[in-house]
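re: that chain from earlier
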Amino acid sequence: MPEAFSTVPTLSRWLSRSQSRPFVADSLEQAALTLFAVPCNDDACPVAPFACLGDTGQAPEAWCLHADPVHLRADTRGLILFDAATFPFDDDESSELAGALTALLAGDGWQLVRGDRRRWYLLGDDAGDLHTTALPGLRGKPVSGRLARGEQAAQWEQRSNELQMLMYSHPVNQRRAERGQPVINGIWIWGGGRLPETIPAAPFTQVFSHNACVRGLALHSGTACEPLPERLGSLLDRIQDGQLLLVLDGLDSAAAYEDLQQWNTVLERYARDWFDPLCAALAGRRLHSLELLPLNGRAYRMQPAQRWQFWKPLRSCRDILA
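^ sequence. v structure.
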């Protein structure tokens, strides 16, 4: 029901009165690669090498794949994928499981690197003909029909089955089952590629993000990058000195798993801590422009004068973003 969604007047005004342009990206990572002018399409979107760089600070010298630990749960739709951000999964458990898989993978010539408890990587021979489905778009959805394709697909399916069997019987999962927690019963392979020697100079003077791929893109392009602060605050003084990229990705998981309560909570916090003060700074001409990329196929750019274009009808942000 419409009234179940939070109303965010500032965001609605921003979207209604701005100039929009096409900006197609299926995920935050694909959008980031596009912004940094790295070629990316459905079959070849090299998220993993940049994310590995962002997580570890070390440039992967081999072909790199995401191999992220996941929980696969059976229901009437088939096997549904849940990423490790949706359940308790501590660093010790992640380290134990990853260590158990290392020997099996090493026998096939692959090195497992743990960038974060929720993000693992495989480094090894070129797997360029392996076409995979990105994990962000699969969260909360059936994996049927989304398995790897290509000449090496059968080999990777066999390898994945062996890894799943090893994980199923591992003490970490036995303890998790006893506690009633979701077991880590699969890894999802995706985002493979090789880190290019160079990428074009970034259009940003500074990046603020917690996302590993974004951090890696900034690092590889020589762009300063820091974690996103809790709110705009004193960051406004720094925004005036250049073009900044702010990555507000707290709505990502709520959207993927259709968690309306979490969506509203985060959206209201973003309105208070980011959208309201940013638009106020724009109205006061402390900023030249703002551009929002909400991953709905459009980008919304607003300059100070556009805030007062009262003849443009106001539409709710929910209707515009739907």
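The first strand starts at residue 19 and ends at 23.
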